[in-house]
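__Record contents__

***
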Amino acid sequence: MSNINNYGVDMNNKQIKDLYSIEAVQDLSHEAAATISGGALDFSDKKDGEGRRLNNIANARRSLGSFNNKATWYEVTGTRDWIAYTGENFTGKSRRLKAGTKGNFTGPFNNDIASVKPA
């Protein structure tokens, strides 16, 4: 009979089992985790995904920090749309980025995205 309860705790010496030895626990890549959670948003500062990247944005960001006004390309993974704004704190012009799409920003949005949030 095992001394380990359903929570992975050895009842004799109260030690927790290695996390990966617990059934159903696995390490997920950032991309897999983003897909499971509904998707993520990726940016790059050059066309067609080249250049410096800001990847796996999974939640609303009031500011893109050092990536403000640098995004030239985007990719939306998963099943939810995102709204990109030209101003911080979800202000300025907005553009809906559809789930499952990628592309280069054009016009007033090229190099001018400062905040994003899920639609």
About this structure: The chain has one domain: 30-118. Residues 30-118 form a domain with the Gamma-B Crystallin; domain 1 fold (CATH 2.60.20.10). The mean pLDDT is 83. DSSP finds one helix and seven strands in the chain.
